[in-house]
Specification:
mainly alpha; 4-stranded antiparallel β-sheet; 12 helices; 4 strands
């Protein structure tokens, strides 16, 4: 019995000793096997030493977006007044740089370094939209408003006269239409004036006076052989004998004597001092048929009246109102504005 008890006690002591012998080994095993777990986790990526210090790794990021006026960061997208960015504001993409062959680095938030954040993407889209908007000083629409369209228009007609006759003529010119007269109407008017004779009206149409040094105003600017008689004209004073020796036709027309020469009638100054009523001092073209000048003037007045240029009386006198109507018609039809009955004007009226 004692032997059995001693055996059981011995076994218990042996088991307790064995347990005590194993306990130090387990406490020392982590120190001895420190690198074993590291080798087991070798395929997994270890965090960089600077991962534990986000406040120091942030300034070293490459390709990050600069905000609030940051400068001198290569490749960074500048905002809020940044300068010195090559191609900034031109919509061009920044040149890409080659990344190293190593695995991409990640910051403390787990985002890949250099990758744009959602906010940066929105800002980039806003910048692209801003580049597409038209500038403030863009050209206006080609469809001008009536006010602006009429502001630059220049009237082809001369400035409106200040005399009452000129005001009346200006009203007539305002409603005139640029067109050729009706040939049938022209023939009808000419037939009505077949026996027309003008009468002097110094109260309505004042007479002009003789001036030997007078020249037709601006005639030196009228180009072409059809205006040579106007450029070379100057009044001359002669007696009846001189006129009859130089011209074979001298007639009393509308209160004054005129002589005929190569399609034109001219005032015969000095022929009869008692009959020197001339509403116009210059050549009057009537064509090669040598019709009387008062009849041709009446025809022109009636045709211009029909077209809306002339509102005066058809009197056969080439006075100021008639000359202003001629100027308006000549300007509207691209003719030299002589304010006289010349060959181009008479031909344009189908009366040559």
């Amino acid at each position: 019995m004692k032997k059995l008890t001693s055996l059981l006690i011995g076994c218990s002591l042996a088991l307790a000793g064995a347990a005590l012998a194993q306990q130090p080994v387990e406490q020392q095993s982590p120190a001895k096997g420190k690198r074993a777990p590291e080798k087991a986790r070798a395929p997994q990526a270890q965090p960089r030493p600077n991962a534990a210090k986000p406040e120091t790794s942030a300034p070293k990021q490459r390709g990050g977006t600069k905000e609030h006026g940051a400068t001198n960061e290569p490749g960074a997208m500048k905002e809020h007044g940044a300068t010195n960015q090559p191609g900034a504001g031109k919509g061009k993409k920044a040149p890409t740089t080659q990344e190293p062959a190593t695995a991409p680095e990640t910051n403390v938030s787990g985002q890949r370094e250099g990758a744009p954040t959602p906010r940066e993407k929105e800002q980039a889209q806003d910048r692209r939209k801003g580049m597409k908007t038209p500038p403030a000083n863009a050209k206006a629409s080609p469809h001008a408003t009536p006010a602006t369209a009429g502001a630059g228009a220049t009237a082809a007609r001369p400035a409106p006269p200040t005399s009452p006759a000129g005001q009346q003529n200006a009203q007539a010119n305002a409603g005139a239409k640029t067109k050729k007269p009706d040939p049938q109407k022209v023939q009808q008017i000419k037939s009505q004036h077949a026996n027309f004779r003008a009468q002097p009206k110094p109260q309505q149409v004042p007479t002009v006076t003789f001036n030997q040094n007078r020249r037709i105003e601006r005639s030196e600017q009228w180009q072409g052989p059809q205006y040579e008689v106007f450029r070379s004209y100057h009044p001359e004073w002669h007696d009846q004998g001189w006129y009859h020796s130089h011209y074979n036709r001298v007639e009393l027309i509308g209160g004054g004597y005129y002589f005929w020469n190569a399609g034109y009638w001219y005032p015969a100054w000095g022929y009869s001092p008692s009959a020197q009523y001339y509403a116009y001092d210059g050549p009057i073209y009537v064509g090669h048929r040598a019709e009387p000048p008062d009849k041709v003037i009446a025809d022109v007045q009636a045709v211009l009246q029909e077209m809306g240029y002339y509102k005066g009386e058809v009197d056969g006198l080439l006075g100021p109102l008639t000359r202003e109507a001629l100027t308006a018609y000549q300007a509207d039809n691209g003719l030299t504005t002589t304010a006289a009955i010349d060959q181009p004007t008479l031909d344009s009226l189908d009366m040559g």
